[in-house]
Structures are given as C-alpha cells and as structure tokens.
Amino acid sequence: MGRTSKHHGKTINSATKRRVHTELLRHSKTKANVLKTLTVLNAAGVLTPGIVAPDASLTAQRGRFSIRSSANTAANIETPYGRVVQQMRIGRDELEYWDYVHPLAFLYCLTERSSALGDIMDQCIGDGTKPLNVVIYLDEVTPGNPLRMDTTRKIWAIYWLFIDWPQHMIHNVDSWLLLGAIRCDVVNSFDGGMSEFMPMLMRIMFPESGQGMQTGAHIVCRSSDGTKRTRVFRGKFAGFIADDDAHRQVWGCKGASGKKPCFGCMNCHMDRIGIPDEYIIGIDCPDANRFHYHTDDTIFAMADKLVASAGVLAPTPFKALETNFGISYIPNGMLYDSYMRKIVSPTSAMIRDWMHVFCSDGVANNEIARVLHTLKSECNLTLDDVDEWARLIVLPRHHGTVSIDWFCDHRLLERKMRGFASEILTMVVLLHAYLVEVVQPTGAMPREIECIGLLKSIIDIMKLGAHRSIPHIERLKSLLHAHHTLYTTLYQTVHCAFKPKYHQALHIPSNMATWNILLSCWTTERKNKDLKSACGDVYTHMEQVTTSTMVAQQIEHFERNHHGMLDTFTLIDPHTSSIEGVIETSLHARLPCGHVHAGDVIITSRPFGVARVHRFVNMPNVACHCLLYTSDAADE
Length: 636
Known about the structure:
Elements: E1 4-7, E2 10-13, H1 14-28, H2 31-43, H3 60-73, E3 78-79, E4 82-83, E5 85-89, E6 97-101, H4 103-113, H5 115-125, E7 132-141, E8 155-162, H6 167-170, E9 177-183, H7 184-188, H8 194-205, E10 217-222, E11 228-233, E12 235-241, H9 244-251, H10 296-309, H11 315-325, H12 340-343, H13 346-349, E13 350-351, H14 354-359, H15 363-378, H16 383-390, H17 421-439, H18 446-462, H19 473-491, H20 500-504, H21 508-515, H22 522-535, H23 542-560, E14 570-571, E15 575-578, E16 582-586, E17 588-591, E18 594-597, E19 601-603, E20 610-618, E21 625-630
Helix pairs in contact: 1-3, 1-23, 2-3, 4-5, 8-9, 17-18, 18-19, 22-23
C-alpha cells in the first residue's frame, strides 16, 4: 500500500501522485512545464487535494525534485535481478555509462504487477521443457524534426518480446518491452558501430556467466486460489526483426549497396539482372528453388578467412575479398565474437520484415508506379481519374479516409510511388479495385491486372497476422513465385523495376517456417511514436530520461491492462449499464481481425453474411462478445 499525504484534512495515495506526474511528464516533456501546469490547475481548484503542495509555486526546486522522483520510481523498482533500470559501462567520450532496462528484472516486475501477463507466461512455459524464443527489434529514430541537418539527436530504439506470446499481444505496442535507447552518435563511436555494440547488448540477456535467459529465470504467476507463485522459464535467441539498413549494421554485411545484396544466399549477385546463368542469379530471379543458401558454417568460414587475411593481404585485394564475400571485416563484430557464435545463428536470426520489404520503398511501391505509368501511356488515363474514383470508396473507420494526395503526380516517380507504408498498403487494394472495375471491362492491361491481383493476395495473407498466417505458408510460396514470374516477364526491360527487396520477399516463407511466426515492424514502428514523445524535448541525459519515462508508462499500462492489451477481445472506452447485471457496450472494439468500429461493413458466417456493425456488447457472465447488425448492408 502506498504512502499517503494529507491536504485540507484529506488524504491522497502517493501512487496517484506519481501517476499524475508521470503522465504529465510524458506529454509536457520538461519538469518545469509540468510544475507550471500543476500550479495553475491547483490555483484554479480543479486538482485533487494533495497532488500539489500549497506552496508549490514558492518551492519550484522541491517540486521539480518531486516530479523527477516520480518519473524514476518505476526505474528504481527492486527485483531479485536488481533494479529494473541498470547501468552498463561502455566507456565512450559521448557516454560513460548507459542506462538500459534489465530484461529479467523488467519481466519479473511486470508479472508481479499484472496477473494477466503472469497467466500468459504460465501458459507459454507449459511443462518447462522448451525454451521461449526471444526476438529483438532495433531501428534508428529521429525525435523532433526529422529533416533537421543536425542528426546528433538520432537514437537507436531497441525492443524485445517472446514470439511464443499470443498474436494479439505481438501486435500490441506495449507488449514490445524496452531494452534500451542509445544515441546513434554513441554507437557510431565504436569502430564497428552497431555490429560491435550488439554483442555487448546480447550479453545483457545471455551473459557468459551468471543468470540469463539461457540458464533460467523466474516470473510471478497466480495459482488457482489466487496466491502468488514463481515459475522458471528459459529463453533462446530467435533473431532480429529490422529493416535492411539495421540488419546491415548488425551483421556488418554490405547489403543492398554491395555486390552480394543477400546475406542468406551464396549465388545472388546485384549485377546479374536479366543475365541467365546456371548458378549465379540476379535479384530478379523469381524461383526460390535456385537459391543456394548459406549455412552458419559457410558464413563463419568467410569471417575467419577475413581474420586470417587481415594484415597479410594488401588493402586493395583485402577490400576485393570483402566485396566478394559481401561482409565487412569488423574484429569485434557479431560474426567475429566467439561467444556470440554459440548464441546466435546468422542464417536464421536475420528475420525479414514484410512491411519494409513490400510497403516501405519496396515491392508494392515499385509495382504501383509501374501500373500507373502503364495506365497513363496505354490507356490515356490520368492520376486524377484514379484519385476521383478512389475517393468514392469508404474505408473501415480505423483506416481513415482516402486522401486526395495518395494518387497524385508529385508522388509518382519513375521507379516508385512515394508514400507511408500504411498508405501503400491501402493503395494496393484501391488500385486493384480500380483496375478490375474500370480498366478490365475494356480488355486493356490483362497481365498487369493479374500481377497486382497476385500482389494483393500475397499481402492479404500476411495481413492475417503473426500466427494466423502460418497455415498459408505453401499458398504464400506459390503466390510469390507466380507474382515474381509474371512481374519479371512484364518489366524485365525496365531496370529500375527491380531492387534487392524483390529478392528478399522470397525469403519470407522460409523465415515463417523456421520460427512458426510471421513478424513485421508495423507494431514496433507505432511504438517508436511513444519513444519520440518521451525524448522529443530532452537534451541532457537523453538515454536516462527516455528510458525511465518509457518504463514508467509501460508498467502502468500492464498494471491497468491498458485498452485490454492482454485480452483477445476488448471493448474500447465501454459504457456500463445495469441491465440484468452489468452489461458493457461500445462503438469500438479490438477483435482478432483488428479494430472494428460501429458503421463498418463486415463479412460474417451465416446467418448474417454481409452486415453493418451497430454496436458491441459484452456480458461478463457470457463467455463471448456479441455484435448487433443491421440487415441492409448487403443491399447497399
């Protein structure tokens, strides 16, 4: 039970005060602004007594200390593994000690405070014979103005989770647990950059000695009678989910700019587009059966060859050797660390993200551009025609509305269609519908329509989510092969139509089969908004302030089960009625298929078929959520 303070004869729990301070600090950014806000509200008499002392305006320093203490309370929570936020000495001129979130301490803290998370962990552990699989996400984030010339505030966001968790948790931003945030300048001060820093980070989770994921750790769960008990789980490293550039920096490979753009294939060469060969393939090869895959041994053999050649070969032939291997020589990097070789499998740990591969300057961007250029040249249609038709479409409410800027000339480049990933995802559906409804009856562009239809089907499978897409792996393989074969036939002579992501797309089914899950960066990219908010106006002690703010927010969300984040079905902002017991109703709910609002048109099983959502109803005594429909949607 938290301490209480008295004010005008009333008491207030200290936890309430900390919660107010933390929430305001997250939105107001600075302690001085929080204090000013609280003082003004208190003077107006709108605050609960005890939130601000009567003399707060006269003791600003003491007030700022109180707010700082509230923000650091979560970071300083003690667990059997030490404090939630701990420090690691990295010894750089830019940063001597780095504040990170200890994964075992944080998980213990969360399960102790959230019985629902403890129950989920209990189910995932099962009989305890199989370790849980850990995935790490990392990306460079620019808080504030992303176009500013000074990039010193650019920061690495690093999260993790267990891929054994249910799908609805994997797609929730709060389920991705913060591991740390560190400025890019600090990471770049290492000779090997992120590839040298990552082994230090991995040793936090998987230390060479002492307790770690691989040796076993405790979480808190509840018995059937509600009493707390602990369970032991083990973890193993599955891989990194990131965009191409982050993968390149972690592994020290050449990436898309090198001669060998694929870290997983021996025979894929960047300069062999459209050139037939019995063994070597280009990034335009649509047949995954021709891929000659690397093994861990072949990758480590290349790294060992570079180690043996360093200082022996002259600089020019040594650079040529790096180019032929497709990896860089980083003495303290991931591929050269003997302990990391025991923990990390390079061939399976590089998890391709379908969001970046298809929708972020990816396959879909290219194909939309190719189709629109063909529309303009062969059908004498303009982008205004497409835009006018597309804006007649009513999207599900959670997807917003069709923007007038989506299909416009300034976005259409020669090689791609510019746009945010979420916009490109919707534009594929709209463009395919336009082609089917408007262009196909004229008999024009039959193969282009078939090709983008295959692309839409591929994306539809991946949109099923982390676990629900797994039964469709073989179907996805055949669709990718058919799409890439037709796309290559259509655009073989257009050199800018192909990029390494076209090849990476064919690796996604094998990643799915390896870990029995389809991961993407949609959720983590949304979480980056929270990190930007936490460090947007922070200019000193950036890592410390950002970490403590994010941890406090995440602990609070798990304690409150924020927006039903731990539930499969949840009503958003429900209204409670006392009719034959407690009944909750809402106009917005999160279902296994995603967020659904009143007014959305959905397809259901019989007897409803096509129907329009009227309202969501939840009766706690009934183990289901009920939907009410109108029957006129099918006619519309």
